[in-house]
Every structure is written in structure tokens, then in C-alpha cells.
Amino acid sequence: MSNYEYIISSLPFLSADYKYREGEGFKDVVEEIRRDLSPSDSQTVDFLLEGFSDKLDADFYARALVHKNAYIREYFRFDLNLRNAKVRYLNGRLGRDSGTDVIDGKGDLWDEGLDIDLYRFQGGEFE
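RESULT FIELD:
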């Protein structure tokens, strides 16, 4: 993103009471942003938006955690760890095995030795 600062400064200020312009929606705002992006950056946005699907699976996270963009890797590593923590909590409350439905980073889809628990919260900062 060679013109990152200009793209960010042109975005609307979003707040809890933000209203889209007449006839405008989320997709319109994304398309407005895309017009200033390189094809490579547009593909990164596509991947980021794919992460908001309600049908995420181990394959998506396997691709995300080895993505060429560091932000994508770090964001979805955090996202996966947070979702796994929620699943473990719910499993405990429901009396199920804590590992049920957890995406653990094991299997054919994952690189050897991929550590999805890389981030550990210590002293207010991620290591």
C-alpha cells in the first residue's frame, strides 16, 4: 500500500451513530477504497473480508497463518486463539471435552510445527 496514508485519510469517520449516505452501504465503501488500491492490496482486502464469513474452517486459518501479509497472519492468529478460548469455555460449561471443535493446527492442512498459541499475554503486551 504505497498510498496508505491517503487511503486512510479519505475514509469516513465511523462512530456508533454513523449513517451511510442515501443508497450507500458497506460494499459501496469497500469499493470506494478499492479504487485506490493496487491489485495486490485488493487481494489482501478480499482475504481479510473472507475472514468475516460465518463459515470459517481449519483450511481458512491454515491459509491465513501462512499469508504473505504480516497483518493478516497476526490478526487471524489472534482471532483463532480468541475463538478457541471461547469454544473451550463453552465446552467446559456444557460438560464436553475441552478440545471438542477446537481448531488445533494439526493435520494435513497445517505446516509442520505451526504453533497457533504463539501469542501469550504477559504484562500487558504480546511477546
